[in-house]
Every structure is written in structure tokens, then in C-alpha cells.
Design a protein that fits this description.
By secondary structure, the chain is of the alpha+beta class. Helix content is 68%, strand content 8%. The chain has a single domain, classed as Outer membrane efflux proteins (OEP) (Up-down Bundle). The protein starts with a helix and ends with a helix.
Length: 478
């Protein structure tokens, strides 16, 4: 084979090889972000969105006949937040990044080729002075390094997937808390309105008595101060209602104007069963919370990382076949390259990996301890709130009976209108106290659900499965 023929063959095949390599490459596609466009899209979100309707039907399991919905409850608002909330999109994007990392970890090193043209300046007359050579390098990984990289990447991907569940729980908790705040503020506004009306009527009656000299100025002033204080409380309740409405819209992922005219409903009748505060429920939570499972995946990834660093003590093998055309002679070479681990046995990276594994273990223990504390505080708070609600209920029933009695006495002529309005005022105060107790109970119930990451209406089923020895890990994560 002459140099001219070798050159001709190279020129013939090199373009084909380049075309094959280029055709298998990914191409960059720019996707610029426009702040104005994204802001417009966010502000254009509506609750009559066709995509939202389809999403709700898929997750509710039935077709929605009336759209948009006239009444939105915790379930539909939570699903709406899952559809719109950017934080969940961020968590999903992080999972896709981790999934791409699995593909990266499974990649094999490409072989390399070196073209080495040589020229003999002392070649004899008539002898071709050129002696071109081609060298290849093929890396063979040892000690199962590729499998260990894939295992680590899979654990990181699982951790990212579980983070979606943890983020979804945070979104649900925020929706519940803000919906509760809004409905409580709405009821509080109504009660303060009633109390303000009653105190206005009392002030009117007292003014009439003052005008005829039946009461003194201090008595009238005391009533006026109480009226002004009620007006301030009424205004404060209206302000909190507006704030809660704004927070709810933000949590759902829509602008506050979207909630105009919407009927929002919160089921105050939902109560926790004894299963929610049982030791078995705590055990389930400590083994199935998404963040705990995610921390376990992080620890498993740290272990796989340590395995990989230990495996790197064993050098990879490089095969180096080559070809050289030397003055008319075809010469074939077969080389073998192995790194000699004499001065460095990868001890530094191994020590770092061991420290990272220890750190992951300590983080897991810290998280479990935090969860135990959250559950204990939530259970204690719920039990106290439940007892306080019983006490407030007794007071409310007594004031309700007193109100009925005052109305009956007024009707029979045994009491005057001032006595009736005073009884109405006391009843409104008892209603506010009852509302405070209900608020505390529902707040602690939400904290307990969040600590366990188990909804109230499914805890009994989950506990029963674990007690019968048939736990379903996937269902627990839901």
C-alpha cells in the first residue's frame, strides 16, 4: 500500500465518518425566557381552564357536569394548586435533571484515535520518507465502576422523586391552612358584625336612658368605648379575611381576582379518629414520610458513592492498538496501559466519601428526631384543643339557652329590650369563643396531618394494613 493510496482511502472514508458522528449528535435549540410573556401567562390563569377541568376529572375519578365549579372545597383547591403551583413544577424539573444523571452515569467512555504523521529526514534516495501512524485508545473500566455510578444516580433520582411528594404535601398543607384562615375570618367578620349591631342598639337604648337621666355619663361612656373597640375588631377581622384570601390565591397559583365570586367551602365536621394519635400511626409516619424516604435514598446514594471511590483504587485498563505505514511496510501494534497505584491509592476521595456517608446518616437521624418532635407537639396540641372545644361547647350551649330565655322574657314582658340585646351580645361573645376553639382544633388537626403526612380520612385504612402485616409502601407515599 502506497502513501498515495492510503491518503486516497482516508479522504474517501473520513467525510462519511464525520457525517455519521455529526448525525448522532444533539443540536442546541435556544429557548429564551421573556419576563413579560411569563408574567402574562401567570396572570392569565383562570379556574375555568379546560386543562384544569381534565386534570380534576382524572384525579377525582368522575366527570364534572357543571364547569366551572360553583363551590370549591379542600380537595378541588388542592388539586388546582397541584395543577398551577410553580413549586411543584420546580420539583418535577429537579427530578428530570436527576433522571438525566442516570443516563450520564451509564455512559461508557468513548475510544480515542490519534493520527501521527512521521517524516524521516535521513531516508535514502528513492525511499518514501513518510511513515504515518494511527493509534487507538480503548478504556476498559474495572471493578464494576459503571454499575456503581448508575446505582448512585438511581438513588439520587429516587430522592428527587420523593421530593415531589414532600413538596405536594407542603402545598396541600398551605392550601388547607389558608382556606381555614379565610373561612374562619369570614365567620369572624359575620360574628363581629352581629356584635357591632347589638352594641349599636344597646348604645341607642342607653342614650335614651341618659337623655331622661336614668343613667350616668360614665355608664354611657363605657358603652361607647365597647362599641368603638368592637368596630376596631370588626375592621381587623375584615383585614384578616382579605389577607387570607390573598394568601389562598397565591398558594393555589392564581391571582387574587380569580377568586372573586367564588364559593369556598371548608368541612369543619372532619374530626380525627383515635388512629391518628396512635403509636402505630407514628410508626407508619416515621417509616413512610416522603422526606424520610428521600433522606434514606440520599444515604444510599452516599453509600454507592463510597463504593465507587473504593472501586477507583483499581486502575482501568487502556487498550492501545495501532497501525504504522513505514516505508512500504505495514506495522501493527498492540499496546496495554495500566496506571500504577503506587503514589496514590485514591485515599483522599475515599475519606471524603466516608465523611459524606456519615453526614447523610446524621442528617437522617436529625430529620427523624425533628419528625418525632413535630408529631409529639401536634398530638399534644390536638388533644388540648379537643378538650378546649368541649369546654367552649358547654359555654356556648349555656349562652344559647340564656339568649333564648331573654327573648322569651322580652316577648312575655318580663324583660326589656336592653336585657335582650345584652343577652344577644353575650351570645355573640360565646360564639367568638366557640369559633376560637374550633379554629385551634382545626389548626392542630392540620399540623397533625402534616406531621404524619397522612390525611385524616385514610389513616384508619393505612393503620389497619400495617397491623395485619400487609403494608403497601407505594400507597403510603400517596
Amino acid at each position: 500500500m502506497s502513501v498515495e493510496l492510503a491518503t486516497k482511502n482516508t479522504r474517501r472514508w473520513l467525510p462519511l465518518i464525520c457525517i455519521g458522528l455529526v448525525s448522532g449528535c444533539a443540536h442546541f435549540q435556544p429557548q429564551p425566557l421573556s419576563p413579560g410573556k411569563t408574567a402574562s401567562l401567570l396572570q392569565a390563569r383562570r379556574l375555568d381552564d379546560a386543562g384544569l377541568k381534565k386534570f380534576l376529572e382524572e384525579n377525582l375519578g368522575y366527570e364534572l357536569q357543571n364547569w366551572p365549579l360553583k363551590s370549591w372545597d379542600l380537595q378541588t383547591l388542592t388539586l388546582t394548586a397541584f395543577y398551577f403551583q410553580p413549586s411543584l413544577n420546580v420539583a418535577r424539573a429537579q427530578w428530570r435533571v436527576a433522571q438525566a444523571g442516570v443516563k450520564t452515569a451509564g455512559g461508557r467512555p468513548n475510544p480515542t484515535v490519534s493520527l501521527v504523521p512521521g517524516y524521516d529526514t535521513s531516508a535514502a534516495m528513492g525511499v518514501n520518507p513518510w511513515f504515518p501512524a494511527v493509534d487507538f485508545d480503548l478504556q476498559l473500566e474495572t471493578a464494576g465502576k459503571r454499575g456503581k455510578r448508575i446505582a448512585e444516580a438511581n438513588q439520587l433520582s429516587e430522592s428527587a422523586r420523593l421530593n415531589i411528594i414532600a413538596t405536594a404535601w407542603k402545598v396541600r398543607s398551605d392550601v388547607r391552612a389558608n382556606l381555614l384562615d379565610f373561612k374562619i375570618a369570614e365567620r369572624r367578620v359575620s360574628l363581629w358584625q352581629n356584635q357591632f349591631t347589638a352594641q349599636q342598639q344597646i348604645m341607642k337604648l342607653l342614650q335614651q336612658r341618659f337623655d331622661v337621666g336614668q343613667i350616668s355619663r360614665p355608664e354611657l361612656t363605657t358603652a361607647q368605648i365597647a362599641l368603638n373597640k368592637t368596630l376596631l375588631d370588626f375592621s381587623d377581622a375584615q383585614s384578616k379575611q382579605a389577607e387570607a384570601r390573598s394568601q389562598l390565591a397565591h398558594t393555589i397559583g392564581v391571582t387574587i381576582e380569580v377568586l372573586d365570586g367564588m364559593e369556598l367551602d371548608f368541612d369543619f365536621s372532619r374530626q380525627a379518629s383515635d388512629d391518628l394519635t396512635s403509636a402505630e400511626a407514628h410508626r407508619v409516619a416515621l417509616h413512610s414520610r416522603a422526606d424520610i424516604l428521600g433522606a434514606l435514598s440520599d444515604y444510599a446514594a452516599a453509600e454507592d458513592d463510597l463504593r465507587l471511590e473504593v472501586a477507583k483504587q483499581y486502575p482501568d485498563v487502556h487498550l492501545n492498538p495501532g497501525y504504522q505505514f513505514d516505508q512500504g511496510d505495514n506495522k501493527w501494534l498492540l499496546g496495554l496501559t495500566i496506571e500504577l497505584p503506587i503514589l496514590n491509592q485514591n485515599q483522599g476521595p475515599i475519606a471524603e466519601a466516608e465523611a459524606r456517608r456519615k453526614l447523610a446518616a446524621e442528617k437522617f437521624i436529625e430529620l427523624q428526631w425533628q419528625v418525632i418532635g413535630e408529631i409529639d407537639r401536634a398530638v399534644a396540641g390536638f388533644r388540648v384543643a379537643r378538650e378546649q372545644l368541649k369546654t367552649a361547647g358547654s359555654l356556648f350551649a349555656a349562652e344559647q339557652q340564656q339568649q333564648k330565655s331573654a327573648k322569651a322574657q322580652l316577648k312575655a314582658g318580663a324583660a326589656d329590650e336592653l336585657d335582650s340585646e345584652s343577652a344577644e351580645l353575650e351570645f355573640d361573645s360565646a360564639s367568638l369563643a366557640q369559633l376560637d376553639s374550633e379554629t385551634k382544633l382545626q389548626t392542630t388537626l392540620g399540623a397533625l396531618e402534616e406531621a404524619l403526612q397522612i390525611p385524616v380520612d385514610s389513616i384508619s385504612t393505612i393503620v389497619e394494613k400495617t397491623l395485619t402485616g400487609n403494608p403497601n409502601g407505594k400507597e403510603l407515599q400517596k
